[in-house]
Amino acid sequence: MMNWAKQKLADVAGTQEPIYGPSAIQTVSEQAKTTPYTETVKTDLTWQAMDSTCVETQQFYLMAPSGHIGFAQIIYSNVAGIRTTCQFNCKIFYPKSENKPNLWSSDPLKNVDISDDKMNFYADNLAFELSEDGTTYTIKSMTNQASIVNLTVKRTAPGFQVGKDGKTYYGTDPAAPWGTMRHVFWPRNTASGTIVTKDGPVNFDGSKALFIMALQGMKPHHAAGKWSFCDFQGPNYSAVLMEFTTPPSYGSTVVNVGGIVKDGEIIYAGATNTVTHNKIKQDSENDWPEPEEVKFEWNGKTKDGKDVNGVVEGPLDARLDRVDVMAEVPAFVKSIVSAAAGTKPYIYQYSPHEHPISLKLKIGDEEITEQGELFSEATFIVAT
C-alpha cells in the first residue's frame, strides 16, 4: 500500500502508523535555523477550522496574586472530515492553604459560530473575542454553572511563533504534507475578571497570563507521543517552552519551541531549547515515568546578537493533578484516538511552592536571577 494510503487508513481507523522515519517530518526547528522566530500579527490568530482530521485549541493559563491558577480552553476537533466536536474546558487549582479539590469543568459546545474573519469564536453561552487592535481577548462562558467565566487577557509583550510560520510538517513528500503541528504564543499578559464557582467568585484581577494557540492537523497520538510544557511568570520576565517527541513512526523526533520575554520586548525565541527530567518515578497505576525534578533551558541570541541562556530548574513538589485524558474528555479524545493500540494519555500537572523557583538568565555579560511562579505539565500518550 502506498504511504499516503497507509496514513489515511491510520487517520480514519485509528490504526498504528507505519515507520516512515525522520525523513517524513520537516520540523519547525529547520525553519528556525535561518528565521528563529516571527512576531505575531492579528492574522496569525485566525481559527483554521479544518474540515479534515485536526485538533485546534486556544488556551489561557492564569496565575493570580492570591495563589489560584486558572485555565480556560476551547478545543475544536474534527475526525477525518466526518464529525466535528467542540469543547470548553475550565480548571482552577486552589492554593494549598484553602485545602480544596481542583475545580474541573468540561462541556460540549452547541451551535458553534466562528466569525467571518476567523478571529472570534461563539457558541451557546460562550464567546471568545479578540479586540480590534489584536491585543486583548475576552473570554465569557456560562456553559457550566459550576464555573462561570468572565475574563479579559491583555498582551504586554509581543507574541511569537518559531520559524516563519510556526509549523512542523508531516509527510514523505515535503511539497504535500499530510499533517501539521503549529504553536503561537503570547508569553506575557495581564488578566482581570472572575471565575464564579458554587463557593463564590475567584478573582483573577492582576493575574499574569499565558496564551497559546495550537493546531495539530492530524491525529494527536500520531503527531506526538509525549510533551513537556513550562510556563514561568516572574515580576519582570516570562518564559515559555513546549517540547514534543514524535512516535517512532516519525523517528522519535524531538521538537522544542519557546522564548523569554519582558514587557514590550522579546529577549529570545527559537527552537534551541531543552527539557531534562532530572529525577523520575514510575507511576504505579500506568507505568509512565512521572517527573519529580526538571530542568528547562533556553539557548539562543537576542536580535542584536547577544548570547542568551535561561534556566528554570528544581523539584516539582507534589503534583497538582494527574489527568486521565481518556476519562476526562471522552467526547473529544475517544473519537479521535479510536482503537489505537497502546494509547493511554495522561497529563501530570505541577506548580511547586515548597521550593522557590527562579529563572536564571544571562544576556551577554549581564546575569539576572528572578524568582517567580512555575506551571508545568508532562504528558505521555504513546511510547516514543
Automatic annotation (TrEMBL):
Its localization reads:
Cytoplasm
Sorted keywords for this record are: Cytoplasm
Biological-process GO terms, alphabetical: response to oxidative stress
Q: Matching InterPro entries, A to Z?
A: Ceramide-binding_SVF1, Svf1-like_C, Svf1-like_N
One Gene Ontology cellular component annotation held by this UniProt entry: cytoplasm
Name the major location. Answer: cytoplasm
Enumerate the Pfam families for this protein: Svf1, Svf1_C
- The superkingdom of the source organism is Eukaryota
Svf1-like C-terminal domain boundaries: 218-381
Q: Where is the Svf1-like N-terminal domain?
A: 55-216
Family membership, please give it: Belongs to the SVF1 family.
Q: What is this protein called?
A: Survival factor 1
User: Which species is listed as the source?
Assistant: Hyphodiscus hymeniophilus
Q: What is the lineage of its organism?
A: Eukaryota, Fungi, Dikarya, Ascomycota, Pezizomycotina
